[in-house]
Amino acid sequence: MAINKQPIARKCRSFDVSPAVMGYGNKKSNRNPGGTRRKKVSEYGAQLKEKQKVKFVYGILEKQFEGYYNKATSMKGITGDNMLQLLEMRLDNVVYRLGLGKTRRAARQIVVHGHIRVNGQKVDIPSYSVKVGDVITLRQKSTESELFKGLREGTSAVTPKWLTFDAPNLTGSVVALPAREDVDFEPQMNMIVEFYSR
Question: What is the value of pTM for the model shown?
Answer without folding.
Answer: 0.81
